[in-house]
């Protein structure tokens, strides 16, 4: 099932470089978007667990997966990545209907509460069979400082957690019951990728996932349709080459702050950016270059990567001003 012509890169500064690992469900969400748009892209494998020195050299410390790089512009979080892909490669659109605003609002639930619930479910179901190092890292990231106790509780609460996932999957099954190929109709949209990564995660990482999903016949039909889209065309890239690409180019991010900024941000301020949860993660520090309601961009320089612009979403991220502009 092909929905777009393959995008040919003629300028290395516009080449999409994707930093991820194969088992990442959030990376799978973006790979589906690559497929919808028929993109050619470069794949940089990163470790599943910290340290991730090649990645954090580019991001300034952000360690989550995935990260997209285009030249010396670095895009963190799938929100930011998908928005930028839609801006650069407008056809076919990820928003094929007029409900773009509602789709973005719904994505805050699919990527937030629904995904966090699915992680808790899968970690809890694994129980003592979970790799200890992986459990400690992801437990701290998603379950908080008292992650070990939360993991035991998730295991005890597994029937309840299954029931909480059964309801939204039933809703999706109903949405698809008129025979439509995708959630909004005959064309795939961003919201298909945003729900698919949860289903993909359940099927691949929970032992009972296939039997659980089998009760949702329309959902399984849709799942096969999304899978058939593919991931576009990828070629491997060495992480050192990705760093050299960034160092050899200048970032293209725009400069400015949109009116009515609630935090009174200004270009040139020293700021830090981090996820708006207590996951024990390192904030990324730099100089504010751009901010609007959806995005914040900070500029940072280091000897190994040169000057880069790191892009984050505003939704779900905290910006702290560490000093004022000169």
Notes on the structure:
This protein is an alpha/beta fold. It folds into two domains: 171 residues, Glutaredoxin (3-Layer(aba) Sandwich); 126 residues, Up-down Bundle (Glutathione S-transferase Yfyf (Class Pi), Chain A, domain 2). The chain is built from eleven helices and eleven strands. Helix 4 crosses helix 5. The radius of gyration is 20 Å and the shape is globular.
Short recap of the structure:
One of its GO terms (molecular function) is glutathione transferase activity. It contains 11 helices and 11 strands. With 326 residues, the chain is of the alpha/beta class.
Topology:
Elements: E1 16-20, H1 25-37, E2 40-45, H2 53-59, E3 67-70, E4 73-76, H3 78-88, H4 100-126, H5 132-143, H6 147-156, H7 158-175, H8 190-205, H9 209-213, H10 217-229, E5 233-236, H11 239-247, E6 256-257, E7 270-275, E8 284-291, E9 295-302, E10 306-313, E11 317-323
Parallel strand pairs: 1-2, 2-5, 4-10, 6-8
Antiparallel strand pairs: 1-3, 3-4, 7-8, 7-11, 8-9, 9-10
Spans of 5+ residues with little confidence (pLDDT < 50)?
A: none
Task: State the order of secondary-structure elements, H for helix, E for strand.
Answer: EHEHEEHHHHHHHHEHEEEEEE
What is the CA-atom radius of gyration, in angstroms?
A: 20 Å
Number of domains: 2
Number of helices: 11
What is the makeup of the main sheet?
11 strands, mixed
Percent in strands: 15-25%
Query: How would you classify the helix and strand content by structural class?
Result: alpha/beta
Measured between the Cα atoms of the first and last residue, the distance is 54 Å
- Counting DSSP E segments of at least 2 residues, the number of strands comes to 11
Average predicted confidence as pLDDT: 95
Q: Quote the CATH topology of the largest domain.
A: Glutaredoxin
Approximate helicity band: 40-55%
CATH class of the largest domain equals Alpha Beta
CATH architecture of the largest domain: 3-Layer(aba) Sandwich
Taken from the alpha-carbon principal axes, the silhouette is globular
């Amino acid at each position: 099932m092909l929905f777009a012509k393959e995008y040919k890169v003629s300028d290395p500064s516009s080449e999409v470089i994707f930093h991820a690992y194969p088992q990442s469900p959030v990376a799978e969400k973006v790979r589906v978007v690559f497929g919808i748009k028929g993109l050619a892209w470069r794949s940089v494998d990163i470790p599943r667990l910290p340290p991730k020195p090649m990645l954090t050299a580019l991001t300034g410390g952000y360690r989550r997966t995935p990260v997209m790089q285009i030249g010396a512009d670095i895009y963190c979080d799938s929100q930011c990545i998908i928005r930028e892909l839609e801006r650069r490669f407008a056809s076919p659109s990820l928003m094929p209907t007029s409900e773009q605003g509602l789709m973005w609002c719904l994505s805050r639930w699919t990527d937030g509460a629904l995904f966090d619930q699915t992680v808790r479910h899968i970690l809890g179901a694994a129980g003592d069979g979970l790799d200890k190092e992986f459990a400690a890292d992801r437990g701290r990231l998603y379950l908080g400082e008292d992650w070990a106790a939360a993991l035991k509780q998730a295991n005890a609460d597994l029937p309840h957690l299954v029931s909480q996932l059964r309801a939204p999957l039933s809703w999706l099954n109903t949405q698809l019951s008129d025979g439509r190929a995708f959630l909004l109709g005959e064309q795939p949209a961003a919201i298909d990728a945003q729900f698919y990564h949860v289903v993909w995660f359940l099927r691949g990482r929970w032992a009972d996932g296939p039997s659980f999903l089998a009760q949702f016949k329309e959902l399984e039909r849709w799942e096969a349709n999304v899978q058939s889209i593919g991931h576009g065309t990828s070629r491997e890239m060495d992480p050192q080459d990705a760093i050299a690409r960034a160092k050899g180019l200048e970032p293209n991010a725009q400069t400015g702050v949109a009116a009515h900024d609630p935090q009174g941000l200004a270009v040139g301020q020293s700021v830090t950016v981090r996820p708006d949860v207590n996951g024990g993660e390192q904030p990324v520090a730099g100089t504010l270059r751009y901010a609007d309601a959806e995005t914040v961009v900070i500029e940072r320089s280091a000897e190994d990567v040169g000057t880069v612009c790191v892009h984050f979403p505003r939704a779900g991220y905290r910006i702290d001003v560490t000093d004022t502009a000169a």
